[in-house]
Amino acid sequence: MNPLQVLQACMLLHALTFSCRIDLRELVHNYAVFCILESICVRSNRPLQQDY
């Protein structure tokens, strides 16, 4: 995923959690965890892509 896709995914998660009326602290926590996991996935995929 490129940075734009990560941003779009985070915004989608943000919208979904709001539509479900989830507590704000939980929203922020989910958003942060999702973005951290996504950044780890992006970083861990970069070396694999460079090997090809």
Helix content: over 70%
Helix count, per DSSP?
2
State which percent range the strand residues make up. under 5%
Q: Indicate the mean pLDDT.
A: 71
In angstroms, what separates the terminal alpha carbons?
Answer: 17 Å
Query: What characterizes the major β-sheet?
Result: none
Explain this structure to me?
- The protein is an all-alpha fold and 52 residues long.
- Helix content is 87%, strand content 0%.
- It has one domain.
- The chain has 2 helices and no strands.
- α1 runs antiparallel to α2.
- The longest helix is centred in the last third of the chain and has 28 residues, at 24-51.
- The protein is flat and about 35 Å long.
- The model has no long low-confidence stretch (mean pLDDT 71).
